[in-house]
Amino acid sequence: MDDHRAQVEELLADYRRSREQLVAVQRELAAVSGQASSPDGTVTATVDGGGKLASLELSELAYRRHRPEQLAELIVRTAAAAAASAAEDTYKALSTVLPAATDPAALVAGTADLRPSEYETVDRGQQPVRGRVVDDEDNEQRESWLDSELIDRRVR
């Protein structure tokens, strides 16, 4: 009986340690942000852990040095660099709790359990779905079905 009680206590202690570790990682993930500045220093972007733009600073020189379309492109590139920085911090935080063979970037991208052939089409604007890729034809069929449902509801 004491042997079982000791095993249960050990399992509970392991569970508590794992839970504490997950809480610590969750706090670390919540604090992740990324920041980047343009090479000329006229644009600074800060993003949250999900890569969402949190702040954008433009110096007075930004408007003088760059035409509007150039400035827009510089802002996009700088925000992307900030998002990449935040992603690296996210991957580092996750890697402490993932099995050694798990790629944190693939996990965050949602492709960790997919074969490359199942998610390569993401680059062409298609979304991976377990076991198959949703293509434009599937989307058109789904949209037309939804449209007819909406029309039916309005008519009633």
From TrEMBL:
InterPro entries xrefs: YbaB-like_sf, YbaB/EbfC
One MF term in the entry's GO annotations: DNA binding
Coiled-coil region list: 1-28
Keyword DNA-binding: yes
Keyword Ligase included in the entry's annotation: no
Name this protein carries in UniProt: Conserved DNA-binding protein YbaB
Keywords: Coiled coil, DNA-binding
Compositionally skewed regions (Basic and acidic residues) per UniProt: 141-156
Stored Pfam families: YbaB_DNA_bd (PF02575)
Region (Disordered): 117-156
